[in-house]
Amino acid sequence: HIVASVQAAAQDLGWPPPPAERVRSVIGLSLDQALARALPGLSRAEAQAFQTAYRERYLAEDRDEGGLYPGALRVLDRLQGQGIWSAVATGKGRAGLDRVLSELDIEARFVATRCADEARSKPHPQMLEDLLDVTGLEADQALMVGDTSFDLEMAAAIRMPAVAVTGGAHPEARLRECRPLAILPGVSHLDEWLAGQGVFPSRQGQ
């Protein structure tokens, strides 16, 4: 969805579309930061025109890119049932995140959220630092679960433990370079990994 929207927006403006792999490599950054890497050398006016075209294309897409990973809702519910807080640090803007959370009816499952237009872009850790301030936790009391190297890098910057999930924009090899605690084949495996760490009982023991 993101790759298609970026390429379509460029074509709408009469520009050659950037290669898909280049676009995938910047997913997770704020739109400003992603644009600077995916389409370098744009003037301020060109960048503003592209952002407008991209948002129009993104919202017009029929495919539901905002859907959750398979098993994610079950994991969120299990965490909530165990009294474990979940939060969001995202490259989306506030309007985009609020729209997705509302459409999926999952706002109540998150104790706090931070967006790219409220803090410095990933991989700077400001979003995580803000979430720690809201929750009153220390970095070593939290766990970052991410599907891009930018997620893992922002966690590493403040020594927050992190787990990688494959299937996102960045290949497993790039995630592995960030040395997360684990690389899981999907979010649906997170609760069993947490059970293995003693965070809550394994489902086999329930």
From TrEMBL:
Gene Ontology MF terms: phosphoglycolate phosphatase activity
Taxonomic superkingdom: Bacteria
Protein name as catalogued: HAD hydrolase-like protein
Keyword Hydrolase applies: yes
Keywords: Hydrolase
GO cellular component, one term: cytosol
Keyword match Secreted: no
Gene Ontology biological-process entries: DNA repair
